[in-house]
Amino acid sequence: MKKFIHLANRPELSFGMRTENINGKRNYVTPEGELYPSITTILGEFSKASIQAWRKRVGETEANKISGKASRRGTLLHHLCESYIKNEEGFLQGELPYIAELFHTIEPILERIDNVHGVELALYSDHFRVAGRTDLIAEFDGKLSIIDYKTSNRTKKKEWCESYFAQGAFYAVAYEELTKIPVSQVVIVIAVDNEQPQLFVEKRDDWIDKIWEAKKLYELNNTDTVEVSG
Fold first, then answer.
1. Are strands 143-152 and 185-192 parallel, antiparallel or unpaired?
2. What does the pLDDT look like over 111-162, one tens digit per residue?
3. Given this model, what pLDDT does residue 228 score?
4. Contact 82, 115 (CB under 8 A)
């Protein structure tokens, strides 16, 4: 198992952010007391209609079953990746075999990571008035990147992953806004059931417009819960 180098924590990121659930939507309270919606909530506007149509098609019971299984799989794998990056001993002990197997499929990709800036960092942007929590900020193949782990039951086309790229781009902007350290690359690692994993490496600046597009759509659909920015 690789041992990862962790750089010193940055004092400007020592704040904590609590979350508030408002009308079923996650919001973060910034250190200055601002209430910002989460980036996942914002980007969820793109898929809301298709998800509702899917739930209607398969039925609520089946949809809840499928969604619950996917959520548990994602949470378990995410925990393994986090423990691995933190150099925790014995992190695979007692793990469900299919989750451990899923982890091993992406392990060669994770070995390309080093010089960790932060794990599970809460970030916010006054520029976007949005907040969130990133999986990992570290060097990937020697280049500082936002790195997110995803799971899927099938191989994804790139156009299906645009919200992932925009999410990573947001974290990159927020991190630079708070630390003055630029992050120009977004890395998405997808563990796929019974298939080879997928790796997408994107330029941050290619996805900034997508964040604004999502923010405007969110504000349009939630005028009762957000203050529309100018």
1. parallel
2. 999 999 999 999 999 999 999 999 999 999 999 999 999 999 999 999 999 9
3. 35
4. no
Reported as a pLDDT band with limits 50, 70 and 90, residue 215 is very high
Rounded Cα distance between 108 and 201, Å, is: 15
